[in-house]
Structure formats: structure tokens, C-alpha cells
Amino acid sequence: MEEKKVVLEARNMKKIYNYQTPNEFEALHNINFKVYEGEFVGIMGPSGSGKSTFINNISTIDECTGGNVFINGKNVRAMTANEIGHFRYENLGFIFQDFNLLDTHTMYENIAMPLALAHVSKDKIEARVNELAKEMKIDMLLKKYPNECSGGQRQRASICRALVNNPRIIVADEPTGNLDSVNSSELLKILQELNRNNGVTIVMVTHDALIASYSSRLIYIKDGNIESELVKGESSQDEYFKKIVELNSRESMEILTK
Amino acid sequence: MIIHDAFMSLKNDMIHSFFYWLTFVISSMFIFLFLVVSMSDAVGVTFVQAKGDVATNLAVFSSVLCMVEIVFANDFYVKSKSRELAVRLVCGATYVQLAQYLLSQTVFLVAVAIPAGILAGTICIPLIGLLMSNITGTAMSINITGEALIWTICILGFVVFWTLILNLSFAYRNSAAQLLNSQTIKTGSSNPFLTAFLEDLNKGKQGTISRMIALGMFLVPIGLFYYSPSASMIFAAVSLVGLNDLIKNLAMPYLNRHIEKHITDSEKTGYLGFVRHDLKILKTNLLLLIVTSVLLITILVSTTTATDAVLVLITYVAMSTLLSMAILFRYSSDLSFRKKYYRTLSHIGYMQDSEKRMITKEVLTFYGVVIALILFYVINLSASLIIGGNLSVTSTVVLLISAVIPELICMIINRSFYMDVIFNSKK
Known about the structure:
The complex is a heterodimer of chains A (258) and B (427).
Chain A lengths: L5 E12 L7 E12 L3 E5 L6 H8 L7 E6 L2 E2 L5 H11 E4 L11 H11 L4 H14 L15 H13 L5 E5 L7 H18 L2 E5 L3 H4 L4 E6 L2 E7 L5 H21 L1
Helix pairs in contact in A: 3-4, 3-5
Chain B lengths: L1 H11 L1 H26 L14 H27 L1 H9 L4 H42 L9 H28 L2 H5 L11 H11 L4 H21 L4 H30 L4 H37 L3 H43 L3 H36 L5 H34 L1
Helix pairs in contact in B: 1-5, 2-3, 2-5, 2-6, 2-12, 3-6, 3-12, 5-6, 5-12, 9-10, 9-13, 10-11, 11-12, 11-13, 12-14, 13-14
């Protein structure tokens, strides 16, 4: 059987905030972790457990204090800033809870930026942005500025921007945090289709067990360590969802009984 | 406790605090400088016995302009504090406590700024005396009077009181939720009459006609400078209404189309979007700079003595500097928001070299527009006055240099500060 390719790997990854100051705080402790091509990895954990730190460090947004991160077998520490930049617009799509859109640019310009970086032609940019915007129901808002739109509309624009260059890896930090249930469900279906049909690797942080049940593997982080891991395998989504709820309850009970 | 928190807030938000403080320093310096000159025996006028002469009018004009600049700076400063204000409101702070909080920050900054401004003014006064003596050929010594000092403190005290009222109404108009979400803030800073007038102007007119009218309103009064230079201030006022409309209805749509046309150019999309935003937030400062230049040039040609002419020229240089610095301060204060945008650009895949080029191009384009517009007005007005024999070529050169040099210096400082804020913060 052919072994799956590792796209992201953390070896002894450590993150220390305020390093070498009196307020030093170790947010991640020697994490070892692999993401295989085509996986849909969910990341859960209590508030302050280090989920966002974890996702930022394995996706080049932040630099780890110790250990190494490998992307497609290449050590991020050995990559130049330009190589990281190329890698981001060619392979990565980011979705953040707080949208991270530029209020100085229209929704159209925000969504088109990754394509402009990839030197896609004007016609193709227009077609791709319009197609995605229509899919995400923001095609009427493309000429508006983000601060003229609602939170849900802005999140959909940030999702469009993350998907516009057909990335090989999507990194999402609480992507449904500002969406209603209908839009959340639509987004998850889009992510699932991208994962199943196009083989896009997805790493997603969420608080919601139902949303996590769309993943194929779940990592539970607590106090900067990987505490548990669940693999969906042959389970149905319902069964997988129940396992995730049980895992969360068990972990929560541990905190309560401490 | 409130005063301690206010000081901590000043310390934690150094960029905004520094530029707000610097606005006070420069304003107090100019107010003091012009009051000393207008009240000095050498110029022969006292403020209390003012008879509407040039020196007194210039002192009043400069003081008003400085006050307006402080109010602009305060407006921006308070908006940057809206989140803090919201948290205090949510925690149960009353409007009196909010007033105390903001007032203690302003009073502290003013208290530190006044001595610095007066010291800077005191250093400049002998230089102005020397300059006036050399140009007029009459020995002139300008003495510092206690009256000027008292009036400077009174004027600044009045501005602090005024800003307090504005800040309180700002907090009162906006709920905590609106303050937390800065996009929905009701600023109340735009002139409702002017806004209504401009909206009416656009009603019922389709794109091109509306833009042609704006273009006409902008250009025709400039042409009338040549027909009647003495009425140029009125023509300039009409032209500025046209320019305001033109920026909104022609420049902005043009920039939108241009960005869309060159959407494949990632750098252009980035920096032109920022320039578009700069023009929006700094339009008022730009219009004020132009109207001040035109007003002072028209006053210059109406002077009858060499002393008055030199005074007007000094005012012109001082006000060009003040207003250029106001643009720099406002621009620089906005940079704290840009940090987040540049972080996002990096996440998307923009490279540092590309981001540096974008910053340079943005600053060059923006200041290029500012300088071009100022020169357009000053050159046309000066040319009309030269043709009419009311202005010498030498004076014109001085006016042009005085208009451009402060902008160029501010542009260099701005670019350097921009780079520092973005790239040091990303480390």
C-alpha cells in the first residue's frame, strides 16, 4: 500500500512567548505531529490550550521557538522569506475568525489578491472571483468595502479569498465563529467537497463538536500538549460526532474534578 | 485610579500620544510666536488695542488654524481610544468619569507641550527679528511680553475645554457597542450643511454630467484668477468645493477602475488601495492647506508695507509647515491600523521586498498628489498676480519653495516612519 505524503510536520515544536523575559510563557511543549496529504484535521481544546498557537506555528504564520516545522519535507527555518511568501500564495489558504480583510480595499480586491500574486490573468481573476462570490452569496457586495458589510458577509469574503487560488492546504481558525448555522453548514460542505473531491488538506481549529465531526482526524490539545487523538475511520459522521462529544466531556470532567 | 489609568493609556499607545503631543507643541509654538510678534513694540501693535492691522489679523488667523489642527488631532486621537472608552462604559463608568479620563490625558499632554512650544518659540523670535530687520532694512527687536504668554495659555486652555466638550459628545453619541465596533462610530465631524449641499449637487445627475460639473467648478474659478486676481479668494473657495466633489466623484471612481484594470498587478492593487484610503481620510487637511495658501497669498499682495509683507511670508511658511505636519501626524497615527493590514498581506503571500516597494509608492503617490494640487493653485494664482503686476517673481519662488519643501520633508519622514512601524512590529 502506498504511503501517504506528509505535507506538514512538527518535530519537537515548542513555542515560548516573551522568550528570555521575566514573563516567559511556554504555550506549546515539544509537539510532534504530522498532517498527511488529503487529510481533514480538526483541532479542539479548551480556551487557552494553545490551539491557535499550534495552527499558527505549523502554517508559517508564526515561528516556533524550538524544534522544527517541515512543509512538503522542507524545513521552514531554512526557507527564505520569499520562499515562504511563494509557498503561501501557491499552496495555503487562511481563514481567520476575525476575517483579516483590508478595510482599505473593496471585497473584490481583497478576494483577488492571492490570484494577482500568482500572476493569474485578469479575465481568469474576474471569472474566479465572481464564481466564488456567487457561491458564497456575496456577488452583490464585491464593490463594497468590508466595513460596509455584516460580520457574516465579511467572513464569507475571507473564505472566498482563502479558496480563490485553489490552495493545496487550507488553514482555518474558528472559520464558522461568526456565521449562522446555515452558512456554517454551507462552508463545511464546501470544505468537505474540496477535501474529498480535490484532495485539499484542511487543518481547522474549532470549538464546536458538530463542526469537528466533518474532519477525518481530531487532535485534542490541552495545556500546550496533544492530549488525545481520534480518527474517524469507517465510522459514520453521527458516530464520530458522539465520540468527539464524549472526548470533550471526559476532558471537561477531568478539569472539573481537579 | 482614573488618572493613573489615563497615564498608562498614554504610555501604552505611544504613537498616538506622541503625535497628539507634538501637535500641541507646534501649535503652542506658533500661537506664542505670532502673539509675541503682533504685540511687540517693534511691530507697533498690542493685541488689546488691535485696530484690524495685518499683524493682529495674522496672529488671530494663525491661532484659529492652530486650534483647528488641535481639534483635528483630538478627533483622531479619541477615535483611536474608542475601544478603551467602550470598555470603561461597559464596566459602568459615567460620562463624568470618561470626561475625567480624557481630560487628564489632554491636560497632561498640554502641560508638557506648552513649555516645549514656548521654548521653541522663544528660540525662533530673535531669528524672526533678524530676518525682518534684514529684509525691511530697519533694525527691529521683538521683545517677549508676559501678555503674549498669558494669551497663549488662555487660547490653549480654551482649546482643551473645547476638545473636552467634543470628546464628551463623541462618547455620548455612541453606545458602547458602536465604540467597540469602530466602523459604526458616529463621528459628527463632517459639516452637515456641506454634506447636504454636496449630496443635493449629485442628486438627479448622472455620472458624467455630475463629474463634468465638478470639473468645471474646479477649473473655471482657477481661470477666473486671471480675470480678477483681487477676488481670487472667492474663486478659490468655489474651486475647492469643486475639488472636494471631484475627489469623491472622479478621483475615487477612477482609482477603483484603475485598480480593477490592473488587478493582476499585486503591488499596484495594494498601494493604490491605500492611497485611495489616504485621500479619503486626509482630504480635509489637503483642502485646508490649499485654502490657507490662497488666503495668505491674497493677503500678501494687499500689504502696503515691507514689514507686513515679511510677516505674511513668515506666516505662509509657518502655516505651510504646520499644515504639512498635520498631514504627517494624521497619516502616521493611521499607521497603527496598517500594521494589521500588512500582517494580513504577509499571510496572503506578499513578500517583504514587495511590501517595502508598496510603502514607497504609496507615500510618493499620495504626497505627489498633495504637492501637485498645491502647486496648481499657487502657480495659477501667482501667475495671475505677476501678470497684473501685483507680485514679484522672487516672491513667487519663495512661495513655491515654502509650499513644497515642508511636504517633501514630511514625505521623507513619513516613509521612514511607515517602514519602521510596519517592519519593526512584524519582527
